[in-house]
Amino acid sequence: MKNIENVSRRDFLKLSGITASSFMLGVNLPISKAQAHDDLAHELNFFVSIESTGEVTLVCHRSEMGQGIRTSVPQIIADELEANWSKISVVQAKADKKYGSQGTAGSASIRNYFTTIRQVGAVARDMLEQAAANIWQVNISQVQAKNHFVHHKATGQKIGFGELSKHAAKLTPPDQKDVKLKSNSDFSLIGKDVKQVDLDTIVAGKAKYAQDIQLPDMLIASIQRPPVVGGKVKSFDATEAKKIKGVVDVIQLKERPFPVNVMPLSGIAVVATNTWAALEGRKKLKIKWDHGDKQVHNSQSFKKELIEKVNQQGKTVSSKGDVYAHKYNPQNTLEATYTVPYINHAPMETPAATAMIQDDKCTVWAGTQNPQWAQGMVAQELGLKREDAHKIDFNVTLMGGAFGRKSKGDFIVEAVELAKATGRPVKVIWSREDDIQHGFYHSSAANYFKAEILDNGKVDNLISRNAYPPIGWLFNDKTKTPSDSQLSLGFADLPFDLNTLSYENHEVDSFVRPGWVRSVACINNGFALGSFVDELAVKAQVPPRKMWLDLIGSDRVVDPTEDGFKYSNYNLDPKAHPIDTKRIKNLINLISDKANVEQKLPNGQGWGISFLRSFGSFVAAATKVEVKGNKVTVLEMHTAVDCGIVITPDRVKAQMEGAMIFGLSIALMGQITVNKGIVEQSNFHDYPVTRINQVPKLFVHLVNSDAPPGGIGEPGVPPVAPSITNAIYHASKTRIRDLPVNKVFQV
Amino acid sequence: MISLTVNNKILKLDIEPQMPLLYALRDELKLTGTKFGCGAGQCGACTVHLDGQAIRSCVTPISVVAGKNITTIEGLGGNEDHKIQIAWKEFKVPQCGYCQSGQMMSAAALLKQNSNPTEKQIESFMQGNICRCGTYKRIKAAIKSAAKNTKGIS
């Protein structure tokens, strides 16, 4: 397995000042095992155990937030193992470096680890085959594993996995590099819809999320955090709060310095024997705040500053030719500025974590996308050395949605701080207001495009600029520009055939905590790109499909590094995951044909399309809307996805369906505003998300492909919003360049 | 002391009368299938049945349900065989699953009062239940299918 040089990781580590070992993005999984023992479960490696009965236990080391990874990872292992799916049970890994990276973010689980996950299964299969070969006293080449048995090729004899397991467990695992993986045509489970691992427990109401943890003697904590990032408690009075029946204590959390990192925001915690008492006690707190420097922030004036910035030349990210030497023909030139507001994740399960400290042992239960990162933070909080982080017993629960929010461990450290302070197990629960007002927001962003339509109809002389608070600010509060890997998110990697272009970025200060929200900067970059291509099509008086295809040009592989840009390609090997224009054009044509976007529609209706390649996958979207008076109704939405090899087709479809709904929320309603540094929204009444009565007919078109798998959790989102606003233009001639739509139309 | 019936069991609770039913179920009775989502009756994650009607337990004080019959997801089908639960599995509705207890409780209450709802009636009844993962298409399909299903508990 190749070690992929990971530019973003280097940037990240440099910014955050933490060591490589504390933030493992390693590609190699160490496939070794604990020593063999003779009890019922025989461990073949860290991920695979087989009982004498043939029951197989597989470890899922990635975190489940609804994307279906607890099905897909075991499915890949079981396929290479040649195990029967009905005999598989899945256990969730605790935080442990022995599993390699557990950071479940960037739609990376399959796209970055497909081969290593397969090797886990293949190594175990090889051991079972060797065990059978030893029994029959033949060379391993004379045997073959198939559907839970190892078969003797010459005699047709077979021995079950259960019977072989105790022998196999005594063998030394082969080197993962020496084990032959199946050819794609031999896949038995990959590409098939197996039963979701957690379906039955969810439907029974028995699935356990972080909010559901119950321990004897446990306290519940609700925390009033500083309204402004960096704010501090001047003074507080807890007298009335402590009078509430059930309130055990009121505790001031320690102040936390800049950079804010992903650490807690401090504040005043009310701990109580039940949730209601904690919430009621919190209402009675009297706190005087020092709001600090960030209280100057107003999102409305901030947006104007961003717009002003991107309408001026910025710092060159990458360029080809000299656009500034070119004399634009104003008649044929199009300029446009697009803006996206702060957006919040708002997972249905608000953040929650439980910590218990007994003597020198700390146990944590949390719904987290990044168990090892959080484990390291907990160790630091408790004054342990980083190398002792493994002493924290860190349990990973199901997450009731996450969308990037739960990669940050702030709420977990809060629980640890309070468990330490109270000497009892503490569950920290965030209210919806906490979640909306103290999040890590998708940055308010402005994007600018300029291009010229030449006399021959070809578009050239493109300028693309963006400006937004960079996520790197979390880790170094001097940071004002995004890293190269952030600028690789649908910005400086356009698949267009241009002679002259300039990608530029501006420095921006941060005032609220910026964070990764499902598809990250692809949200604003994708919105601007998809809108601008549509605007070019309108100006050139050609169908949007033709404008996309003309811009993309011939079949080829686009290499953004040619123009000097340090393109990160989502940490993927560009040879295995190229920007392949043929695949893009195929998708543009597929979505246009499947949705029939060039059909004649009644007045007031329109189709819009868009496209973005992100996280190693190619996704196009098409939306049909009706605009009647001031009201927009979305009638029909399609996505077409080429994500290479598909592991679980129905879950890929589910992710695309979900991405359409998530994109619909962003396009129509998603907006966090800030005044005097304080978030103005508080719950679903003023931060609305898509409801069932707003949902149109949804269609997903999956492309068959043998290409290495791309990501699936995020890539569906970016093309959705521009497909909606483009449709609104074609229905009404009203161009939305400033999201969300509900500023202009009723939705 | 407040007395109520939860999933056919008569219970007595010594708690503040203003405590919302949600926290009584989750903290006191350890019935964690009913979820917190917003605390304001806006998202439906906490939906349970009060004498067969869907209510938002996060804004219903326990005193209001004294002496009444409450059904939670744990008691919906008894053996996970309510026709809504059967349909939820058939259409593989859940993604993260967190909102689905509330979705299923609302859907079951809908079918109880309208055994064959139209698409518009489903949308109207279910619009108080948010699913951030975006499983709405399958929720609609599952409700329509359950309405046609004569097997399973209703």
Your description of this structure?
The complex is a heterodimer of chains A (747) and B (154). Chain A is α+β, with helices and mostly antiparallel strands and 747 residues long. Chain A has three domains: 23-203, Aldehyde oxidase/xanthine dehydrogenase, molybdopterin binding domain (Aldehyde Oxidoreductase, domain 4, 2-Layer Sandwich); 210-291 and 351-429, Aldehyde Oxidoreductase, domain 4 (2-Layer Sandwich); 299-344 and 440-743, Aldehyde Oxidoreductase, domain 4 (2-Layer Sandwich), CATH 3.30.365.10. Chain A is 27% helix and 22% strand. In chain A, strands 10-11-8-18-15-16-17 form a seven-stranded mixed β-sheet, sandwiched between helices. A five-stranded mixed β-sheet of chain A has the order 13-21-20-19-14, with helices on both faces. Chain A has a four-stranded mixed β-sheet with strand order 1-2-3-4. The longest helix of chain A has 29 residues, at 108-136. By secondary structure, chain B is an alpha+beta fold. Chain B is 36% helix and 14% strand. Chain B is built from six helices and five strands. A five-stranded mixed β-sheet of chain B has the order 2-1-5-3-4, with helices on both faces. In chain B, a hairpin with a 2-residue loop joins strand 1 (2-6) and strand 2 (9-13). In chain B, helix 3 (83-90) crosses helix 6 (136-148). The mean pLDDT of chain B is 95. The interface between A and B is large, with 62 and 57 residues.
